Amino acid sequence: MAPTNKADRKAVVDASAWMFNVVTSVGIIMVNKALMATYGFSFATTLTGLHFATTTLMTAVLRWLGYIQPSHLPLGELLKFVLFANFSIVGMNVSLMWNSVGFYQIAKLSMIPVSCFLEVVMDKIRYSRDTKLSIALVLVGVGVCTVTDVSVNTKGFVAAFIAVWSTSLQQYYVHHLQRRYNLSSFNLLGHTAPAQAGTLLLLGPFLDYWLTSKRVDAYSYNLVSIMFIILSCTIAVGTNLSQFICIGRFTAVSFQVLGHMKTILVLIMGFFFFGKEGLNLHVVLGMIIAVAGMIWYGNASSKPGGKERRSLSLPTTRQQKPGSLSDSNEHDAKL
Known about the structure:
It is a multi-pass membrane protein. Keywords: Membrane, Transmembrane, Transmembrane helix. There is one protein chain. This protein has 335 residues and is an all-alpha fold. The chain has helices at residues 2-37, 44-65, 75-98, 101-109, 111-123, 129-146, 154-180, 185-212, 223-249, 252-274, 281-302; strands at 125-127, 307-309. A two-stranded antiparallel sheet has the order 1-2.
């Protein structure tokens, strides 16, 4: 009876983690869309720096209250993670500026096969035929409902290439660092958020000026826009935490595949709140295909042999207490 109860508890926690991520991710996209489109706050990199500054404040308060225990992350690993994470943020912003919306969406979709490649090479993951086909179906579905005009130029391709690989590496390292150094999601955020906040707030205003030809200090702030910025930063705490929780409990590939449910929800909410232009049978068909692929992936990857390691031995730098097991390590044998 105990294993069943444990499995049920795990399923509830997994579902709650995904729901937490979906709600906060969709929420922050809608808030940021209103902030940028309606109130003209187009300083995306600086805003991201504010997000991580707020997250840093949250982790500091939790550490002071004793909810986050002291932990260690080597400086080299921290610098590597921050490099990947910041290149991901900057690369995505530049890719969106230099590429058509269609090619930008294709670049985002390519993160799934890149993440698969990283897991196969770095973690010796093996995928079943059904798992591979389900991933392909998700790619087709999301592509059908999001990719429209596609035009490519050299500098745009380079920006997209950097964005895709840095994002995939950053998400891979979220799972890798939690597993290798036995870090909780809060612990890892406590290490990475201050470094990201500092670098993005330092470089963000200059990068935003280069991208938009506007200065963040010259923006006409008012009560409503400030309230939206505060709301965006507040939701971002949940978004950052839920991302680390989900990738820590699962993998970057699962996060990418099932995470496209957020893309579908953003499209639906965009049509609902900002007008129904672009909503047609073509888009609806793509959504149905994508959701079917996600359901298939969840079923295929959870079956024995659907997605598993070739070797169960993992390097760790810290011994765990007897009887304790981190959430992420529960999934090392079957992911």
